[in-house]
Every structure is written in structure tokens, then in C-alpha cells.
Amino acid sequence: QSVLTQPPSVSAAPGQKVTISCSGSSSNIGNNYVSWYQQLPGTAPKLLIYENNKRPSGIPDRFSGSKSGTSATLGITGLQTGDEADYYCGTWDSSLSAEGVFGGGTKLTVL
Amino acid sequence: EVQLVESGGGLVKPGGSLRLSCAASGFTFSSYSMNWVRQAPGKGLEWVSSISSSSSYIYYADSVKGRFTISRDNAKNSLYLQMNSLRAEDTAVYYCARVLVSSWYTWGQGTLVTVSS
Predict the structure, then answer these.
(1) Rounded CA separation B105/A49 (Å)
(2) Nearest C-alpha of chain B: how many angstroms from A14?
(3) How far apart are CA A5 and CA A88, in angstroms?
(4) Each residue of B33-59: pLDDT tens digit?
(5) Which residue of B has its CA nearest to A3?
């Protein structure tokens, strides 16, 4: 069981919008930045969102992030078949030491 | 181009040891904290260990504490993970990652470690 909680799967049709939630606690999400990662089948994870809502260069603005309290959300608009992937949230946990923590991952299916 | 290339994975028997390496290029390696993150087959991401830019601060997940040792050689632009007393549950793809703006900003392609008799 992961420290951060994500839904196992979400689905939507091409062109639609989807959101993926990530729930934590005051020792992780509540007091640290959240980042989001996309993992296409057979590849390494790729950073999509950092510091809750910022996009690295090259990430389209179809991807967005937000955080409120001890939860964070990834939004994807204008869904494309190429967006089918696993998505992970991540942050740091300051309860004992600076340990990294991830959500269990969410499988996005574009119907 | 920023690049991280892991090596050293392979098949090892339970109780055995393995040393992973990560070669960095395209950025000032000595300025960044580095992490190891692993992913068991069909499972999610699991943070393994972190080392600060000057090796002053080192952290481990409870699952590997006392068995794994992270280190770096800034002169060689390299990150290492010494893994001892390996268990079947350590079987995973191991990724090295550069930490930037509180995120795992850059990832390597990963190296597979299989622990089996």
C-alpha cells in the first residue's frame, strides 16, 4: 500500500477531460510540493508537473496540476490516445526524514 | 542533452550482492541531489534512497535500510547503489533520478535487477 492514494484507473473518450486525484497527509502533501509523472508502457517515468502546478519545458498546457490541503489533482484536457499511460503523484515526507513517497499509480484509458 | 544511464543490473541469488551505477552527463552533476527509485514488475514506483550534492545527507527507505548503500563520485559524474543481502522482493527496475525543484526531474532508462535462485 502506497503512502499517497490514487484511484487505480480512470477512463474517458478522446477529446474529453479527466482528473486524477492524489491524497496524502500533513506530513507529505500538506507541507511539500507535489509532482506528477507519466509512464508510457515499457518506458521510464517522465515529469509532467512540478511544484504543484508548473510544467517543464515541452509539456503541453493540456496537462495541469493543483493542490489543496493534503490532496492534489492532475488534469488532462483534450485527451489523445497517446495519453494512455500510468500516472503517478509524488512528494516528500517530512515525518521522520526527507523520504520520497509516491502514489500507487493510475492507469488512464482513452476509450 | 541531460542524460542518466544506469548499468549493473542482472540476475543474482538471494543473499547476494550487486552494485548499480548511474552515469550522468549534460549537467553539473555535483550541484544536484540524486535518488534511486525502483519499480517491481507490474507495480508502482517506490523511492529507495537519496543523496545530497556533497553526500552530506543520505536517506533510505525502511525496506532497504541496512542493506543498501548509496554513494556518488562527483569527479566521475557517477551515482552508485551497493545492494547487499538481496531478497526476492528487491526484484525491480532501478532508476536513477536527478532531483530538481522538489521533483524527480530527470530519469534514466532503468536497469533490471532480478533476485532468484
Answers:
(1) 9
(2) 25
(3) 10
(4) 999 999 999 999 999 999 999 999 999
(5) B46
